Amino acid sequence: MKKVLLVTPLSTIVWGSKNTGGVDSVCQMLVKGLQENPTNDFHYRVVAFDPTNSLTALNGVTTQLHNRLEVVQYNVSDIGAAKYFKLPGILHQRRSIKAQNKLFKPDIIHSHLISWLIAIGANVPTLATLHNYKKIGRTPRSKMNNFLYEKVVPSISKYFISSYTCVSGFLNESIKQDTHQSMAIVYNPIDSLFFQMMNKENDSLITLVTCALLTPKKGIHHIIEVLDLLIKQGNTAQLNIIGPATDVRYKEILQDLINQKGLQLHVAFLGAKVTTEIVALYAEADVGLFLSEEETFGLVPLEMLATGLPVIATETGIMADFQRNNIKILGLELAKQQDYQHITEQVMAFVEKKIVVDSEYIKANFSISAVIEAYENVYRKVLNNA
Q: What does the alpha-carbon distance between residue 194 and residue 270 come to, in Å, rounded to a whole number?
């Protein structure tokens, strides 16, 4: 049995109790899947860095989830005993990974951040999964941080990484000009809770829903314009916005737009929600809207489709892959961000025709078990070529 050292961000192993979104969310689903459906071919040790840096007693502790899966949890930053000196985060993480590499003696090391594979002294194949790359899909931080992770890390990673996977064809196209290493596309998984077909009860209210971090790139202001047009056309409509206000100024801009158009009674900011609450909100909606400017993957529209909710989305991330590969899914319409007339017409078409979404393709390709199987196929290929 081959051994995999899997390096991830992971805010908890009490599934569903805490989630910082993004890669943390993806990795929680993958590790949960490995726990619930143990693989026969691989023994996993997960080096789990808590993005919230809130571990106390569990910091550095190994938890056995079953006999072929254990998780070693660390804070993402050094909280060390020294009052006046702590290792920089990247060095603390490197030290922790090197220690587990030495103890576990894996056959392959797989990381969900490329920086975690640099100079760790690995003498086995290394695999990096790219969820973002350089400026693509990355939230800007300090000038030094941006320089390190957008310039330095990508330029030197080729010396330490054997193979790559990325989460969409869109991201693959952006990366392949920079590397000659093998690149496989492995999509992100959808939580099994979303695969519950639930239909809204008939009523005259058109309920729209979106789910995103409140940042300009997510295009929520465009959805408000669509809502305004629907109401001007004589419809009764409501928009529910799920997601934390990560950009306070942008939320103020959205609120000003709502006030300007007199939509105060038609828009609800619901904040962050756990998965079960999101599923329930999708069940109460008629149409899901996701008008993001840029996504390296874009999980939200897939989750909406999985519940049976018709979706109108922009052609970015996985949606661009569907368009490029001519994959048609009943209940999915792609649109331009500012084509409010077309989007409004499609909302009405979905509502009036009572579209039954074909979610079988979503389940077959994006379930947790399907994604784990895809990763294990990559492991086999990398190990065979080693």
A: 19
Q: Which of 147, 314, 134 is nearest to 219 (CA)?
A: 314
With cut-offs at 50, 70 and 90, classify the pLDDT of residue 82: low
pLDDT digits (tens, 9 = 90+) for 227-282: 999 999 999 999 999 999 989 999 999 999 999 999 999 999 999 898 899 999 99
Q: How far apart are CA 115 and CA 20, in angstroms?
A: 20
Q: Which residues, including other chains, have CB under 8 Å from residue 359's CB and lie 6 or more apart?
A: 195, 197, 305, 306, 307, 308, 331
Q: Which domains are delineated in the chain?
A: 2-189+367-385 (3.40.50.2000), 192-364 (3.40.50.2000)
Q: Name residues whose C-beta falls within 8 Å of residue 171's C-beta, 6 or more positions apart in sequence.
A: 130, 132, 133, 136, 137, 296, 297, 317
pTM: 0.87
Whether the Cβ atoms of residue 4 and residue 70 lie closer than 8 Å to each other: no
pLDDT band (50, 70, 90) for residue 199: low
273: Cα within 13 Å, side-chain hemisphere? 18
Q: Higher pLDDT residue, 138 or 49?
A: 49
8 Å CB contact between 338 and 284: no
Task: Work out the number of other CB atoms within 10 angstroms of the CB of residue 143.
Answer: 8
Per-residue pLDDT, averaged over 312-322, amounts to 94
